[in-house]
What we know:
The chain is α/β, with parallel strands linked by helices. The protein has helices at about 35, 60-65, 70, 90-110, 125-135, 200-205, 225-230, 245-265, and strands spanning about 20-25, 25-30, 45-50, 115-120, 135-145, 160-165, 185, 215-220, 235-240. The protein contains eight helices and nine strands. One of its GO terms (cellular component) is cytoplasm.
Amino acid sequence: MTKTPETLNILNxxxxxxxxxxxxxxSILHGDSLQILRQFEPNSFDAIITDPPYAxxxxxxxxxxxxxxxKYSSMSKEKALPDFDSDQMDQLxxxxxxxxxLQDARRIAKPGAxxxxxxxxxxxxxxxxALQWAGWTWRGVAVWDKVASRPQKGRFRQQSEYIVWxxxxxxxxxxxxxxxxxxxxxxxxxNRIHVTEKPLQLMRDVVQICEPGGRILDPFAxxxxxxxxxxxxxxxxxxxxxxxxxFQRSTERLKTALESEVNQx
Length: 265
Ligand SMILES: C[S@@+](CC[C@H](N)C(=O)[O-])C[C@H]1O[C@@H](n2cnc3c(N)ncnc32)[C@H](O)[C@@H]1O
């Protein structure tokens, strides 16, 4: 039997399980994280690793209100990937929204569990505030160097995104995790299926912050990159994704990738 979060006893038994899909050591739930996170039992996760909507992409509300494909992709309209929600808030609303789900995420994380949050330069200060507001201990910022980026005359390139990280209280040095880098250098993936898809190898490196074999939660799963990376690195992973299109895309991707891995062995 496939072990879903339901059968792993980490979901409230009275909760009506939403649409979901899973396989050996992974599952993705289809729905709104702000509702679903509340349904997990305390101490369910060994790490929270996610790339939430940034609500960024412009210096004023009019530019931020554009669709995610307009803001984050240079593809033509015909080839554009599906848009996603929760990305048009102003900064204050986004900070409240982020603090709300981060508070719920902390309740279901084990003591000492690490949290890693992707973000861009514009929302970096707000993210560090939301993290602390939600009760997590902020421990640092790692850098994702995207290698290539648009040159800007007379300005620095916006070549990096960031990983704001911390822990649920004390993070003992005796954890069974080695020394991790502070800078990750990977170009954006080719042939993306999600408008803001992260490089798989980047996520395989980042999940190493979790103790071996632990259970990782990604509340904004997108194309399922974190979930796939986690399983490939020997962890168990649960993702949540609200968009119909990306729930379909992520689950198809995981089924194909992980089944073919099994077939190769
Ligand atoms: C930045 S993308 C994640 C991309 C992912 N890291 C990848 O590599 O494909 C954020 C995702 O969060 C989803 N999302 C937005 N609001 C959500 C919510 N309230 N609950 C669950 N998912 C949500 C969006 O549909 C989008 O796919």
